[in-house]
Amino acid sequence: DFLFFWGAVFLVTTTLVALFKKENKELIPAKEETNGITDTYKLLFSIIKMPAVLTFCLLILTSKVGFSAADAVTGLKLVEEGVPKEHLALLAVPMVPLQIILPLVISKYTAGPQPLNTFYKAMPFRLLLGLEFAFLVWWAPKVKHEGGFPVYYYAVVVLSYALHQITLYSMYVAIMAFNAKVSDPLIGGTYMTLLNTVSNLGGNWPSTVALWLVDPLTVKECAGALGHACATAEAAEV
Question: What sections of the protein cross the membrane (predicted)?
Answer without folding.
Answer: 6-22, 43-67, 87-106, 118-139, 151-175
